[in-house]
Amino acid sequence: MPVPKAELHLHIEGTLEPELAFALAERNGVPLPCADTAALREAYRFSDLQSFLDLYYGLMAVLRTADDFTELADAYLARAAEQGVRHAEIFFDPQAHIARGVPMGVVVEGLGAALDRAEERHGVSTRLIMCFLRDEPAASAMATLEAAKPYLGRITGVGLDSAEVGHPPVTFREVYEEAARLGLRRVAHAGEEGPPEYVREALDVLGVERVDHGLRCLEDPSLVERLVRERVPLTLCPLSNVRLRAVDVLEAHPLRTMLDAGLVATVNSDDPAYFGGYAGDNFDAVRAALGLGPEELRTLARNSFLASFLEDDEGRRERYLAEVEAYEFGAAGA
Ligand SMILES: [Zn+2]
Questions:
Q1: What would the pLDDT profile of 164-200 be if each residue is shown by its tens digit?
Q2: What is the DSSP letter of 12?
């Protein structure tokens, strides 16, 4: 069994495998741009960010009903559990669905039905994090937060995703202030493609407790020093970074540098159906490419639980951390 871990950076829409896409397309009468699953799997080998985003948003059209979202989340949880994920904090993008006529309630109730039985079926505890699309106006994000108010019992926090450059965190100051007022936890993508200043802004203006990606913090030593001092976790996604060309090859990934600097780094899958692997696959890939040893892998697993939003269930966090400390690393399979 792989090392127990929490997954903290996972877009549920990015877990749509070709087989499920075809099944849902048929059920809902939605045409797909490819003839069969083999052709679709081939299309998943996109070459750049724009071709990824075109495919990603195009395929969302197959998600229509609450049951579709339940199936999507259940399939992810089954795969994640196989790879040692014991706790998952799952992102979803309501604006991408509302824009296609699928209301907030359908999305949240559908995902929620899968999350409600995740522990029993897969042994995975869960939280839900609602992300705003940063390339849409702040007013749209605010309207989305408003639409989520009847469902806040199911939503732990808010995040910020999609195309980063040219869309600085400060644009969403009021939305995050309102989210804080509603008692929601706050995270944001920053420093994936955007500059270190976006990471500072996410911390200072949006009040985020965790930075998604944060890779480019390394360009600013004083920012690194602050992230270390304040123990701000970074949710890294190594295979995603290679596919979207944030790093050239996995061997050049700065994960080890970040661990050595004392950053609270975690390893996650981002959009696993599209980027070549789930959480355990990402652990295995960095282990092989960077030559990480058992204690570095244990640190990554420990960090994932320390960085998770389990403040309302500290006993559970303690149990997970004890599992990490007791884990014996074998020759393969992290
Ligand atoms: Zn992401």
A1: 889 999 999 999 999 999 999 999 999 999 999 999 9
A2: G
Instruction: For residue 270, list its beta bridge partners.
Output: 10
Nearest to 235 by CA among 207, 198, 267, 191: 267
Does pTM surpass 0.90? Answer: yes
- DSSP letter at 107 equals H
Which residues partner with 89 through β-bridges? Answer: 127
| Active site amino acids | 192
97 annotated among ligand-binding-site residues: no
CA atoms within 13 A on the CB side of 269: 33
Contact 21, 59 (CB under 8 A): yes
How many residues can be counted in the chain? 334
Name residue, tokens 């890939």: 285
**Stretch among 7-16, 230-239, 260-269, 325-334 having the lowest mean pLDDT:** 325-334
Contact between residue 128 and residue 115 where contact means Cβ atoms under 8 Å apart: yes
Give the tens place of pLDDT for each residue, 38-94: 998 888 888 777 788 889 988 999 999 999 999 999 999 999 999 999 999 999 999
Give CA angle at 173 (168, 176), nearest 5°: 115
Q: How far apart are CA 69 and CA 57, in angstroms?
A: 15
Ligand 1 center to residue 240 CA distance, Å?
8
- φ and ψ at residue 3, rounded to 5 degrees: -60, 140
- Calculate how far, in angstroms, residue 11's C-alpha sits from the geometric centre of ligand 1: 6
Strands annotated E in the chain:
5-11, 85-92, 125-133, 157-161, 185-190, 210-213, 233-236, 264-267
* Both tokens assigned to 152: 């806040």
